[in-house]
Amino acid sequence: MGLKRLLTYEDFRRAARAALPAPMFHYIDGGADDEWTLANNTTAFDKYELLPEYLKDVSNIDTGTTVLGARLESPMILSPTGMNRLFHHEKELAVARAAERHGLMYSLSTLGTSSIEDVAAVKPGPKMFQIYVHKDRGLTLEFVDRARACGYDALCLTVDMTMAGNRERDIRTGFTMPPRFTPASFLSFAMRPRWAFNLLRDSDFRLANVAHRQDALAAGAMGVIAYVNSQFDNRVTWDDVARVIEHWGGPFAIKGILSAADAKRAVDVGASAVMISNHGGRQLDGAPAPVDCVAPMRDAVGDTLELIVDGGVRRGNHVIRALAMGANAVSFGRPYLFGLAAGGEAGVDRVLKLLKTEVRRTMALTGCTSLADIGPHLLRT
Q1: Which domains does the chain have, with CATH numbers?
Q2: What is the rounded CA–CA span in Å between residue 208 and residue 128?
Q3: What backbone torsions phi and psi does residue 232 show, to the nearest 5 degrees?
Q4: Predicted confidence (pLDDT) per residue in 16-28, tens digit
């Protein structure tokens, strides 16, 4: 199916499933335990009906905003997602180029298969680097210094990976990094010859930002659960966060916070923003949907903190609902990863174009000409 015929999130999901071996597809698609949180992240938006206001001049609509000190064409951020080489040989660089074309912020993951420096070379516009705190604490400060030297606008610290979530799909499919051909997975790889050919043609699979210090994959393939539990430091506290923020000295987001109490602590340690997130339903199953956490968090912190809804966003009207609840922006990962798997950079470009168009259309249909017009008056629960 040509990219122009893909219109919805589910269209891109099906196209990605057709392009990827089962372990790679289910790594994107799956969540933790019973995957209740994964589903609830999106269905939670359905509780908030949009109440339009008509007879307004909506001939000129401005979707622009400033988040984490960077000017964006639309209130959307591409969330950090690891190991994009799994899904397409153009990897993170394709996503960064598409984000640059659309004037959106791109977030590079610590576990990316493209380096901080290589992404900066193709993405002069808004960009953020996401860090985990590894057991090698010096590596974290190195990340900060490299991101600063390459002109990244912001840093993001993910805090909800104290240990890996129970991702049963990955166990069933035998997912490993780097990919490993086994008797159990051979048929799945053989049925996706284009993907397999590109893997064999370019088999360089390194976690580009950590391999020089912690090349845990050098000894062979391993699962995500094993990698996280062996490499990430689960002793991180608010004091550690404060030290990283001070060392960085610029816009800083904490990703993975869901409670109003933790949002207030984020203000206390000097964070600029919170990415309200449950890791896409991949960590604690039973956690609340990010969009449901916006209002209590905004009540707790007022205007002292930017709030970014990370999780469940599938449509432009989801973006508007999140903003009406009190968020400054949204972020998402699965939509662009499915676009990447379906068509490389062109697939990501298509996803972003559709979402930006939907945001603009929803604003027009609700009587909003700028993001300042969006507020709780547009919602009914």
Answers
A1: 3-380 (3.20.20.70)
A2: 16
A3: -85, 145
A4: 999 999 999 999 9
